[in-house]
Write a structure and sequence with these properties.
The chain is of the alpha/beta class. 22% of the residues lie in helices and 41% in strands. It starts with a strand and ends with a strand.
Length: 140
């Protein structure tokens, strides 16, 4: 199960709506406890992809800064998020091709006509063949 605090949920919604019709993206900070992941912060990234309306690419400099902060007691990177403008909150073929780390949570936000319509959580399958749906709960 993925537990998403209300503050990062609101941050993801605001970022995804502001970036529409481009894909928004960012990193998720929190902690793991067995099979549960607690997301406490969403950190927006510039989408540095060549085609930001169809793809996302998180700024590697942001990731390095957050990893460095985690070593000093900051939140651990537990996943990332991105939006699908006028699309579904489901992994696309492009998403499947972009699986590199099997232990990162993927949150996908469906943004329809500039408004957040749905948010769903996924974990890559072992071997990178696809994604498994994961229960997502908003709360503390």
């Amino acid at each position: 199960m993925i537990l998403l605090s209300p503050e990062p949920r609101a941050a993801i919604a605001a970022h995804a709506e502001a970036e529409f019709p481009n894909e928004a993206c960012g990193l998720l900070l929190g902690q793991r406890d067995g099979a549960e992941v607690f997301i406490t912060e969403a950190v927006a990234s510039a989408n540095i992809a060549d085609e930001p309306r169809r793809r996302f690419e998180i700024d590697p400099g942001l990731r390095l800064r957050l990893q460095k902060a985690a070593r000093k007691g900051g939140g651990q990177i537990v996943g990332h998020y991105h939006s699908h403008p006028n699309g579904a909150a489901r992994p696309s073929e492009t998403d499947r091709a972009g699986i590199f780390e099997a232990d990162l949570v993927w949150l996908i936000a469906a943004v329809v006509n500039g408004r957040l319509a749905n948010l769903a959580a996924f974990l890559p399958q072992a071997g990178g063949g696809g994604f498994d749906d994961v229960a997502l709960r908003i709360g503390h």
